[in-house]
From TrEMBL:
The lineage of its organism: Bacteria, Bacillati, Actinomycetota, Actinomycetes, Streptosporangiales. Pfam families: KshA_C, Rieske. This is cholesterol 7-desaturase. GO terms for molecular function: 2 iron, 2 sulfur cluster binding; cholesterol 7-desaturase [NAD(P)H] activity; metal ion binding; monooxygenase activity. It catalyses: cholesterol + NADH + O2 + H(+) = 7-dehydrocholesterol + NAD(+) + 2 H2O; cholesterol + NADPH + O2 + H(+) = 7-dehydrocholesterol + NADP(+) + 2 H2O. Its main location: membrane. Its cofactor is Fe cation. Keywords: 2Fe-2S, Iron, Iron-sulfur, Lipid degradation, Lipid metabolism, Membrane, Metal-binding, Oxidoreductase, Steroid metabolism, Transmembrane, Transmembrane helix. SUPFAM superfamilies: Bet v1-like, ISP domain. Homotrimer. The two-component system 3-ketosteroid-9-alpha-monooxygenase is composed of an oxygenase component KshA and a reductase component KshB. Pathway: Steroid hormone biosynthesis; dafachronic acid biosynthesis; Hormone biosynthesis. The keyword DNA-binding does not apply. It comes from Bailinhaonella thermotolerans. The keyword Cytoplasm does not apply. Belongs to the cholesterol 7-desaturase family.
Length: 339
């Protein structure tokens, strides 16, 4: 049920990052806590990552505490029941009869862009779409990075992705000199946008201003992928960034940034990578106090589902917030959705 601060369900249907790929190793159980639940991750002998609920369906032992991986099965530490990657119980050491309901809840997994993602749906539905690959993950180019930073933030995933369409706050909060939405396209589970901005270039660069052309792709409510071309009076920098947002519980999300810069083969690029990464993270940190201390305002057409809270009143020049909200509603299973 929605809580008092957020009138919508806390865990919308989407792909979400639950670990960096390097954290999940063959033959070992990796414990995580997302979606208000304990989960386990592991790799089989082929290197494929898997995800499941942490608690044994038999008598509730935590499989991540004393459990182990043997012959590509998860072995419970309590009664040594064994479960396959699809959740089926295949062995009980003291019984030849396996109860049909003895199944471990598992989650679809996609390994992409250096992370392990799971598809979370409260109804247990399977995914019909995937998270695309970052440009920096493709062959044929050398990239510096990733530079990774993460934060636990008291907010809802919807608030963070509303930000993607809110062009006005780029000037009022992040001090962009100019910022415009050049295009916005909503296509099934994907939102593609192009944004042009002019910023102070930062110290140590020959020009006072930098022009950025950002092309973003939002995949569900868990991932945002961006390719940027930043021009410093003819000196161009190519950037590739991934943001991931995963609900931890009903009040908090795990917010991570992965930044790459295309290696131009000169001495300046590594320093520029660090400088732009600093500026990017500074902007994210400027957003966080807003996220943590605001209330959610529904569109006027959805305000009746927001417990009497006054609706948002949007103005010209604020981007595609209303269109993004209408698009995002597909990820909520409740009919009376306040988004």
């Amino acid at each position: 049920m929605p809580n008092r601060r957020y009138p919508m369900q806390p865990y919308p249907t989407s792909w979400y990052r639950v670990a960096d790929a390097a954290e999940v190793t063959e033959g070992a159980i990796h414990r995580v806590h997302y979606f208000g639940r304990d989960m386990i991750l592991w790799r089989d002998k082929e290197g494929t990552a898997h995800a499941a609920d942490a608690y044994c369906p038999h008598m509730g032992a935590n499989l991540g505490v004393g459990g182990r991986i043997e012959d590509d099965t998860v072995v419970c530490p309590f009664h040594t029941w064994r479960f396959t990657a699809d959740g089926a119980c295949v062995h009980i050491p003291y019984s030849d009869k396996i109860p049909s309901q003895a199944r471990l809840r598992t989650f679809p997994v996609q390994e992409v862009n250096g992370v392990v993602a799971v598809f979370y749906d409260e109804r247990g539905e399977r995914p019909a779409w995937t998270v695309p690959e970052l440009d920096s993950m493709g062959p044929g180019q050398d990239w510096i990075g990733p530079r990774v930073r993460g934060w636990k933030v008291r907010t809802h995933v919807q608030e963070i992705f509303d930000n993607a369409a809110d062009s006005a706050h780029q000037k009022t909060l992040h001090a962009a000199l100019e910022y415009v939405t050049a295009s916005a396209e909503f296509d099934g589970p994907y939102y593609r946008g192009e944004f042009h901005g002019t910023y102070d270039a930062g110290e140590g660069l020959p020009e006072a201003q930098a022009y950025a052309r950002n092309r973003s792709l939002q995949a569900g409510l868990g991932f945002s992928l961006m390719r940027s071309t930043i021009d410093y009076a003819g000196y161009q920098v190519e950037r590739s960034v991934m943001l991931s947002v995963t609900p931890i519980d009903e009040e908090h999300v795990h917010y991570l940034s992965y930044q790459y810069t295309l290696d131009a083969g000169d001495e300046l690029t590594p320093a520029v990578h660090e400088m732009i990464s600093d500026q990017w993270e500074k902007a994210l940190l400027e957003d966080i106090p807003i996220f943590e201390n605001k209330v959610f305002r529904s569109l006027p057409s959805r305000a009746r589902y927001n417990g009497g809270e006054a609706p948002a009143f949007l103005c010209e020049g604020e981007g595609d917030i209303a269109r993004l909200r209408n698009w995002a509603r597909q990820f909520y299973t409740e009919e009376q959705c306040a988004v």
